[in-house]
Amino acid sequence: MVTASDVKVGPEVFINFRGVELRKTFISHLHTKLRRVGINAFIDSDEAPGRELQNLFKRIEDSKIALAVLSSRYTESHWCLQELVKMMECSTKGEGCNNKLLVIPIFYKLKISTVAELDGDFGRNLWDLWRLPGRGRDRDNRIVKWNEALQDVLSRNALVLPETGKEDDFLSTIVAHVKNALSQITPQRGQNPKPQKFLSRASNITEPEDQRLKQLEVKLNVECNDNETRIVGVVGMPGIGKTYLARKLFVKLKNKINHCVFIEFEREKSEEQGSEWLEKRLVEDLLDIKNCIDTNAPLEVWKDSLIDKKVAIVLDNVSEKKHIEQLIGRCDWIKKGSRIVITTRDKSLTEGLVSDLYEVPGLNERDGLELFRAQACCILDGNFMELSRKFVDYAGGNPLALEQFGKELRGKDVVHWETRLGTLAQCSNPTIREKLRSSYDELNEQQKDAFLDIAYFFRSQDESYVRSLLDSYDPESAESGQEFRDLADKFLIDVCDGRVEMHDLLFTMAKELVEATVEKSRLLLSNCADLPNKEGRDKVRGIVLDMSKMEEMPLKKEVFVGMSSLRYLKVYNSLCPPHSETECKLNLPDGLEFPKDNAVRYLHWVKFPGTELPSDFDPNNLIDLRLPYSNIITVWSRYKVAPNLKWVDLSHSSNLNSLMGLLIAPNLLRLNLEGCTSLKELPDEMKYMMNLVFLNLRGCTSLLSLPKITMESLKTLILSGCSKLQTFEVISERLESLYLNGTLINGLPPAIGNLHRLILLNLKDCKNLATLPDCLGELKSLQELKLSRCLELKFFPDVKKKVESLRVLLLDGTSIAEMPCNIFGLSFLRRLCLSRNDNIRTLRFDMGQMFHLKWLELKYCKNLTSLPILPPNLQCLNAHGCTSLRTVASPQTLPTPTEQIHSTFVFTNCHELEQVSKNAIISYVQKKSKLMSADRYNQDFVFKSLIGTCFPGCEIPAWFNHQALGSILPLELPQDWNAGRLIGIALCVVVSFNGYKDQSNSLQVKCTCEFTNVSLSPESFIVGGFSEPGDETHTLEADHIFICYTTLLNIKKHQQFPSATEVSLGFQVTNGTSEVAKCKVMKCGFSLVYEPDEVENSSWKATPRIEDKRQGRRSSFRTAEEDDDCPIATPTTATYNSFNRIVSYFKKV
């Protein structure tokens, strides 16, 4: 028997992504586009239900290319990261990988620097994922691998979609890159197809609809073991299998219920098959009466006979609600426990009539291939397999299409298959066309226009955007958007997570409908010569003109005159990015005219060559105006009323100096004026833009000030890089995001305290900003305050009220000498950055009460001499380059033992650090490591780096009782070394940097542990290191000591572990991808750490001594204060790089 599992479906491209964020939007479109061009792309939902997740690893191994789509929520998913690790392994032809995988990173609205420094949600989610209690087992071993995988991604050429980028263009770029990459990869299969092998039509073929049937049976409760009447609507597009499933269901119902009837409606007989005909059929078939009495209400006559009988009724292919509403609407003739199924291609017909609804899904790829193979009657091998996938993909899971394509190709050779595949998008199968056409023919004229408009212009666009452009009625009307809803109910379009989609079969039919008309209504052109001259001009509704293949030419002034129905006009160059220096290939020597009372709703013209739009252009219907990189000076030179205008993009129109023509646009939502470098002021009339929520003025370098107006709805105001803006006025009290970075303002107005909804205030690089108002405490919603590189800022206000929402405060590069002594108002801070400040000498404010502060950055504070009191729950202290720092105090209190949080203390290049401070640092490391041993009874063997530090020095501390010169430390441990109260190990490495300048801004000290006398896999983890954002070269001077404490949890293979007594520790310095030869490991040390006896106090007393490295005696840490033999050298910051990168999510510079 041939089953679906016999069909070998190996993906060419594996897509790794965060499902809840992107599955129904970007990934759905990418998946569709790749398959549309014949690329077999695989996502996890393509896997057959019930299969183990580990099967996805096999898919990665079988693939040729993997797309790693990184987004802000990517690191929420443990599985995303595990897939990424597998992809990295296969990219080096790891074990089990059939091909050397090509990994292409894709940054979806995510900056590369965000991943590099684990910034924002990306870093926070990774941190939270590691901290999850359920991830305790093996989590640090994994996070090292996750880090390596992320570093591997960062080392590759990537495709980046900016926050404001166009998804459609970006998707095309990805597809082009993938096609090009596949063309350069040597195929794994042979190029010559094997001869066809035909199967008998009588072969036993599994039914691919079984899964769908089971889902439907659950909704209907086909066992009929209750007394609830169930009426289920079965809905879906033509050909999806509604009737097939209904017939299968009817067979099962007949075995449970005695009185059953299957009634099929014929669309061409809808007038004859009215409610009277239906009632008669029901009575005759359910009561087995051959000639029902001719009456107007047979059900009423026979109601008493029916009410005591359970019935099963299937009403198939219902097209008129009136046929069934009167019948099903009153249930006084239906006995409880009956089952009724209604199938229809119009979901709206079932409203108010059914108790449940089942939308029939398309077949998955595997089932689709099996159905297609069964109809084509051939073995899918060689080129036939590849071509079959493309046919199945185009069919989109529609069984009718799969059957018809299979029948078309039965007995044909591979050349015929390839030829037919090339014509699929232009020429549909007659049977499929007839089935789909019947749905189209039932539409009214407005619905037909909306359907064809979506097909030609708005596939994969935002739902609310498409609705706005399609609405043919007053938005306030009850009928507003009715055509759109009707099309969705009839399954002629689909709304998928806010995007409007259309099945490929329907798209092909739509193109055929337009092409079949003599007067074309929708034009996709690549040459102006194809524009209609006279006949048919009044029928044109939309034009898309791609100038990429055109030569430069003048456009006639009257080219659009006569196009009274023109709604959509787009002129662009598909091969040339908008920011390129290439000019528009269309010139307007005589200007341009549009029809009087034009119907234009959408006008998109990249690099529009005119200085303004035609003066007689009536914007009454205009909804979306996009003229980026244009030559316009003003949109119109006089006032125009644009009551429906919602979106305007005039970005990078460097000559624009007036907004005159846009001032009467009361419904405008978004206005993008980025890069309009000639714009000097905003008019007062903008206050009438009552609905404007987004205003982007980034890079308007001539803008001098804002008007004194109030914009009631404005939420986002971007003034970044407005380098001549000297004063700021609060123009909206509803602001949530305010960007003033790079302006010349010297202060903020008192009214800033009224912005109670403000979440983000960005004041970076405001060179003249000298003071901040005392009213900052009034900003109750403020979460991020960024003041980086405000050189004139010398004081931070004394905040009297608690700012409970504030989490991030960036003061790096300012001239603030000290913070207010009373830090009470900022006690909820999580990240505080004071880096690159030469005025700070000590931190006098009371951080002992800042219980929430986790990240404190003090890099390159060259005059900082002391850190007297640190926050009690600090996780990351980075004091790299604090060349005058001498003293460091331990936190006042320690975290509770339940907090399993990694901590790292970085003191690289702190050459003045006193010995007592180094002792204090080591003491804190020891104490905290003791508190973090609570989960030692975990059943996995995991190295878990919990706390580390590093600072200048060249000697291993004496309490490391196993030491060696060089990078290899062999150990022979006693037989019972892991018995008793073992809680972990301590490692120490001395690295000579010799002024090494890091070029990749990443450095890791890596340890590999091998058990040489038993068969256990080597374990690798990071002892310390750093990963810095940006391009700045990171230099380490002299030798540094890295110290880390790592818990050693119980053993996965505990039967073998007691005999693992011969151990070799190997240390090396890497840049994340390869070893750094210039950085040498000079010395290394190791010590087992045991929990103190209960009778001991927390002093960690022990008799530290350096044992012969062949011995394995127990040793414990001893506090620096108690140990006269405390390190005589300065231990360097052993930052566990993986965790250092995680906690660096607060390193926004």
UniProtKB/TrEMBL annotation:
It comes from the Eukaryota. Its EC number is 3.2.2.6. One of its GO terms (molecular function) is NAD+ nucleosidase activity, cyclic ADP-ribose generating. It comes from Arabidopsis arenosa (Sand rock-cress). This is ADP-ribosyl cyclase/cyclic ADP-ribose hydrolase. Residues 1106-1125 are annotated as: Disordered. Residues 9-182 form the TIR domain. SMART domains: TIR (SM00255). The keyword Transit peptide does not apply.
